[in-house]
């Protein structure tokens, strides 16, 4: 067991750490996080479950900057936040990208709804041989530069292996 823990990066002298959730964070150009939240609600029927405003934002500004807004789509949470200065913005490199995937029975309908809310369709809907058996896949790019992939449920992993 100790040898396996060492291979997995766990030291014998360090207590085990568990996580309760993974919440991707979408950083958008300030002050567009509120617009992004409204877009995700319109395009993907996202539910806003919480919001924290930036306490350093001066009262004379019309819209306070969003420190973090938590949204849920299909039971999964993600955060949307305004980028304030360079501190929150990760270094841009050619190899990093974020693609958010939403599983749906109606790929074309999901794309149409997102496009009507302001997204741009990326390519054609196609059959894919992706992980676990594939299915229909289509993509949109939202007004904030994030790519959203819509995929129909494919064959289950166990079915694909049988």
Automatic annotation (TrEMBL):
<protein>
    <submittedName>
        <fullName>Uncharacterized protein At5g48480</fullName>
    </submittedName>
</protein>
<feature type="domain" description="VOC">
    <location>
        <begin position="21"/>
        <end position="153"/>
    </location>
</feature>
<dbReference type="InterPro" id="IPR029068">
    <property type="entry name" value="Glyas_Bleomycin-R_OHBP_Dase"/>
</dbReference>
<dbReference type="InterPro" id="IPR054575">
    <property type="entry name" value="At5g48480-like_C"/>
</dbReference>
<dbReference type="InterPro" id="IPR054576">
    <property type="entry name" value="At5g48480-like_N"/>
</dbReference>
<dbReference type="InterPro" id="IPR037523">
    <property type="entry name" value="VOC_core"/>
</dbReference>
<dbReference type="Pfam" id="PF22650">
    <property type="entry name" value="At5g48480-like_C"/>
</dbReference>
<dbReference type="Pfam" id="PF22656">
    <property type="entry name" value="At5g48480-like_N"/>
</dbReference>
